[in-house]
């Protein structure tokens, strides 16, 4: 991990990050979380850390830390591309406190770009028909952009429950 800090170029940092990803152990995930939330890191490097965290098999305590870090990135409006990917990655972390609520708030926010709103919606969809997701998606019903999607999804969940 020392090699990572010594490399100023994006390509070098990505190469070092890929080497670090192959390591196992308790130090790797906190390191990736630090890279993800560090606004000084290049976007490409942060995106790689996000992908690695999303795809990793994490123990419960680390899942919670990862979910909260990704949630922090979602709420940072300065890097739209990273925010969009965070909304998608959070589909894997909807069981972490506050994640589903934040995704619902993002999907409902008319001042958020539609692609980000839709990404938040699809992450809620992947969480399944939990009471919280049903409630959040019901709030989208009057929405001009996502209301029909929410209506269709809620209907399919109801149909599934009836079978």
Question: How does this model look, in words?
Answer:
69% of the residues lie in helices and 0% in strands. With 163 residues, the protein is mainly alpha-helical. The longest helix is centred in the middle third of the chain and has 16 residues, at 60-75.
Number of strands: 0
Beta content: under 5%
Instruction: Specify Rg, calculated over alpha carbons.
Output: 17 Å
Number of helices: 10
What share of residues is helical? 55-70%
**Class from helix and strand fractions:** mainly alpha
**Average pLDDT over all residues:** 89
Order of helices and strands: HHHHHHHHHH
- Biggest beta sheet summary: none
Gross morphology is elongated
Q: Can I get a quick summary?
A:
This protein has 163 residues and is an all-alpha fold.
List keywords for this structure.
mainly alpha, about 160 residues
Secondary-structure map with pairings?
Layout: H1 2-5, H2 10-21, H3 28-37, H4 43-55, H5 60-75, H6 80-89, H7 99-108, H8 114-127, H9 131-138, H10 147-162
Helix pairs in contact: 2-4, 3-4, 3-5, 4-6, 5-6, 6-8, 7-8, 7-9
